[in-house]
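Pipeline run #58 for the internal structure catalog. This entry was flagged by the ingest filter as a single-chain record with no existing model, so it goes straight to prediction. Upstream metadata was stripped on purpose; only the residue string is passed forward. Reviewer on rotation: M.T. Logging verbosity set to normal.
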Amino acid sequence: MNKNKLKTMVAVVLLALWGTAAAGATPAQELRDSLLKVITGAKQPTTSSLLITNFGARGDGKKDCKPAFDKAMKAARKKGGAHIVVPSGTYLVRGPIHLVSNVCLDLQEGAVLRFSPEAHYYLPAVKTSWEGTYLYNYSPMIYGYGLRNVAIIGKGTIDGNCAETFATWKARQKTCQQCSRKMNHDEVPIEDRIFGDGDFLRPHLIQLYRCEGVTIQDVFITNSPFWCLHLLDSENIVCRGIRYDAKLVNNDGIDPECSRNILIEDVHFNNGDDNVAIKSGRDNDGWNHGRTSENIIIRNCHFKGLHAVVIGSEMSAGVQNVFVENCDYAGYCKRGIFIKTNPDRGGFVRNIYVNNCVFDEVEDLFYVTSMYAGEGLDNNHFTDVSNLCVDGLRCRKVRQAALVLQGTTAKPVRHVSFRNIEVGECKNAVSFENTEDVQLQDCFLGGKVGVPTQVTAKDNLFGERK
């Protein structure tokens, strides 16, 4: 399906969101199915296979294997692409692996990429983004910029190995974090936003930036310095079968940012932060860049960690056409579905579909807020949050609130449909403020009520003393 036809399909959904297509499928389902036809991921190289040990790598956990990976990538580029095989063993890598186009990095079962934790190995700084602001910073441990057809596959492990270094930096990042945000707001040229030694902005574990045709499949990810897998300004991406044990600070699982046409499926999350966090740039950078995150399908995943699926708070360019389907829990999540913005962000969130998802115990189940962190309340960049459809959402126990919608007077949360919601236990069933056109159908919050009882003497209607 070409891009023009896909755009037409999106328009149909916007016009007929609440209707039903003639063939029986809803417009949303038709959009989802059309996306699945165009999301292919990377084309796998078929001509050349390169064994990393032939380039001097040794899986003894002692020898620095970065030169071997650099040589293998150079050889793959010269050949126009290659399948780079990493056999079983522990490979110490002192510095980043910079990918090239048409390469498949195959980490075979038993293979461990263990990155050196010392920060100076990840300089010089590269083009990247940090919490929604474009800048130069430490290189991600695995980095690809401006590439086509890139894959990381196999049952092997990617270990950031940074519990004693990068993971300790959050307490020291505030000065440079605020500086980066000021540069964003002042629209300082990106070439002048240089961070690195002494700035304490942690790098990502894996970042694909301006890439097209990406597959990340089956690998095990642990000990990330910051976000685990950052998909920035990229498209046509498949994330499948990834496994996590990533519990360090801000170890988000997958962060699509300003990216489109993404399939995330069969992923086992176990993260110290958001499992999936969809973003589209922060404030001025998001507005000026203007690249939405859109056409994202999350299905058959197993959630465990802070929040399952989050949109925001860095979402200033907008987020649309997100499907969360047939997912369940591998353990506790603080929040299930969490959409967060505030009057600093602007942008929009629309056409979000949640179908047939199950949680066990959460603090909040479905939470939408336009007042995130209580920030920006004196600003006027209000976010348009609309067209949210939830059909089939179950949870055994909600410690606080089951369904929360918090709009603003200027921009109420609009056109929301809840169907087939079942919550066994909750403290607060519904909290809606500044909303328009909210529909509930077959919703049982706090249990399903059965046949009403008949009056008996035990009712003591007139308060008579016995």
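catalog note: Residues 66-79 form the longest helix (14 residues).
catalog note: The helical segments are 3-15, 27-38, 66-79, 174-185, 283-289.
status: ready for reviewer M.T.
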